[in-house]
Design goal:
Elements lengths: L1 E5 L2 E4 L4 E8 L7 E7 L6 E7 L7 E2 L7 E5 L6 E6 L8 E8 L13 E2 L3 E6 L1
Parallel strand pairs: 2-11
Antiparallel strand pairs: 1-3, 3-8, 4-5, 4-9, 5-6, 7-8, 9-10, 9-11
């Protein structure tokens, strides 16, 4: 399984960005897809997760509830998208997409076996 994250960039506070995570290598029928982020000088933290196919999520960290939305792409795209609105300076981080192929939607990065490269989001105040 390969994950490709894209969509990061520089945005002013209050603005929006859309991150995408495209998967390849196998089908994702029962996978959970997640986004984590690592702010400068801090540990990586959970942002949101969703089951690729069927019921399950989306689930959000309290810090992004009401501002971020995680949605599935089309079945052909094998992608998920993280719409980030009302961005704050504290959202500045490298964002990573991750996946797991066992049940459950944990918030611990150790529970995810597959990772994409990070994409940098910088929010200027």
């Amino acid at each position: 399984v390969q994950l490709q994250a894209s969509g990061g960039g520089l945005v002013q506070a209050g603005g929006s960005l859309r991150l995408s995570c495209a998967a390849s290598g196998r089908t994702f029928g029962s996978y959970f897809m997640a986004w984590f982020r690592q702010p400068p000088g801090k540990d990586r933290e959970f942002v949101a997760s969703i089951r690729w196919n069927g019921a399950g999520g989306p689930y959000y960290a309290d810090s992004v509830k009401g501002r971020f939305a995680l949605v599935r792409g089309s079945a052909r795209s094998n992608a998920v998208h993280l719409q980030m609105n009302s961005l704050k300076s504290e959202d500045t981080a490298v964002y990573y997409c991750a996946a797991r192929n066992v049940p459950g939607a944990p918030t611990s990065e150790a529970e995810y076996a597959y990772w994409g490269q990070g994409t940098l989001v910088t929010v200027s105040s």
